[in-house]
Amino acid sequence: MDGYAGKGHQVLLIDDDSEFCELMTDYLDVHSFAVSSVHTGTAGIEAARRLAARSPGQASDELCRLIVLNTASIQLIPANVAAVRSSLGCAAPFDILPAVWLTSLCSAGLGLAAAWALGRLRR
Question: If you average pLDDT over each of 9-18, 87-96, 99-108, which comes out highest?
Answer without folding.
Answer: 87-96
